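User: I'm new to structure prediction. If I give you an amino acid sequence, what do you actually give back? Let's try with this one:
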Amino acid sequence: MSELEVFVPVAVTRTPTHPLAPRLAGLDGRRIGWLDNRKANAAALLGGVADALAAIGHAFARELADKNATAPAPDAVMAHLRTCDAVVLAIAD
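Assistant: Good question. You get back a string of structure tokens that encode the predicted 3D arrangement of the chain. For your 93 residues, that looks like this:
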């Protein structure tokens, strides 16, 4: 035998590409959604980031929401978050 056939068990990735959301010019006067996935420390992480941003002078409205970590956000939560200028999600343990 002079030939060796190699099989690579890797499927083609079929992940749709989505453009990144446009960046905000600033946070002042904006509505920022904070989505807690109810994992341990996620709420603390989100609160800490929001507090740190407020402490350095950013004035923004906090819109809090939560969802189960193992499921998509319910339609009502997504509808609420769509009213925000930006959304921050924490995945923490």
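You can read the tokens as a compact description of the fold. Here is one thing that stands out. Residues 42 and 90 are 5 Å apart (CA to CA).
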